Amino acid sequence: MRNRIISAFVFGLPVIGLVIVGGWVMSLLILVISSLALWEFAQLSRRAGHPTFPTIMILFMVLFVANWNFPDLGLLAPGTALLMFATMALTLRAFTQGEKNAITGFALTIAGSFWVGWSLSHYVALRALQPDGLFWTFSVVMAVWSADTFAQFTGMLIGKSGRKLIPSISPRKTWRGYIGGIVAATIISGLLPLGWQALGATAAVTPVRGLILGVLIGTLAVIGDLGISVLKRYAGADDSSNLIPGHGGFLDRSDTVIVGALIGYYVLTRLML
Predict the structure, then answer these.
(1) CA–CA dist 32, 21 (Å, integer)
(2) CA neighbor of 214 nearest in space, from 133, 124, 112, 141
(3) pLDDT tens-digit series, residues 10-49
(4) For residues 82 and 74, what is the distance between their CA atoms, to the nearest angstrom?
(5) For the whole model, what pTM was predicted?
(6) Which segments in the chain show pLDDT lower than 50?
(7) Beta-ladder partners of 174
(8) What is the pLDDT of residue 47?
(9) Distance CA 59, CA 16 (A)
(10) In DSSP terms, which residues pair with 248 in a beta bridge?
């Protein structure tokens, strides 16, 4: 726990500052964090016997971030086509060189690029929303953090003897902890807009919208956690890496954040704003 707290301050405070700055700094932050998470994804896949192409995944990430920053250039479709073509070419070469699982590596490369890379790149777009992108970005991240943290504490306090959520994937998660996380994410997300308005947010940042985000993120973010847990179980690993003392790796810290990015951006832009 001591290492977790220290790491949270060492890594968390600079991240908060960079998110506040926004712009190209935010894009660079997401690019670095996502690239590290994708590298860990590639290492887990290799450990499971399915070598992927981490360079291709990072190039996909560059494409996604560039597309959000320069949407008028139309980079996404031709860039995706080019990188998929390159991935298959590398797959064919790997197979002819004796890699029998090459086609699985192809599939995991594409899956990792989109599930991890494309999803996390939405934070660039979320932060760029005008005029309240900063406040919505922090609301989404806080909803994810609340769901994770309070699910863990609720599980520790009253959930040890409770029914397990999906024991074959995550033996420690319980239904009581899960529900505790949803309640916490909903309450905190509903209260945050009151503080954001005091700091300059517009009238569009309302408690009702915060509550909706909290409920959805608290309910669905666990899919990201369990999804990465499946990969770790398949690879026989407890953590994606040890880059963050007490927390594991960047992929471990990004699992629920991935879902938060998708929910936050599309709920806000398609249903609320």
Answers:
(1) 16
(2) 141
(3) 667 888 999 999 999 999 999 999 999 999 999 999 999 9
(4) 13
(5) 0.94
(6) none
(7) 164
(8) 95
(9) 26
(10) 244
The stretches of the chain forming alpha helices (DSSP H) are 2-21, 23-47, 54-69, 76-96, 102-112, 119-120, 122-128, 133-158, 175-198, 207-220, 222-235, 250-267
Q: What is the pLDDT of residues 158-175, one digit of tens each?
A: 766 678 999 999 888 899
Q: How far apart (Å, rounded) are the C-alpha atoms in residues 116 and 118?
A: 6
Is 161 in a helix, a strand, or coil? coil
Report how far apart, in Å, the C-alpha atoms of 168 and of each of 91, 161, 165, 206, 234 are: 32, 17, 9, 39, 11
pLDDT of res. 8 = 62
Provide the token pair at 243: 């880059």
Residues 182/215, Cβ–Cβ less than 8 Å: yes
Question: Would you state the pLDDT for residue 99?
Answer: 94
- Both structure tokens of 175: 């239904």
Cis check for the bond before 131: say yes or no (omega within 30 of 0).
yes
Residue 19: both structure tokens together: 């998110």
Helix (H, G, I), strand (E, B) or coil at 53: coil
User: Residue 44: what are its φ and ψ, rounded to 5°?
Assistant: -65, -40
Rounded CA separation 243/202 (Å) = 38
Contact 217, 259 (CB under 8 A): yes
Query: Which pair of tokens denotes residue 137?
Result: 């970005």
DSSP 41: H
Cα maximum dimension of the chain: 62
| Amino acid symbol at 21 | V
Q: Report the SS3 class of residue 166.
A: strand
Q: What pLDDT is stored for residue 243 in this prediction? A: 85
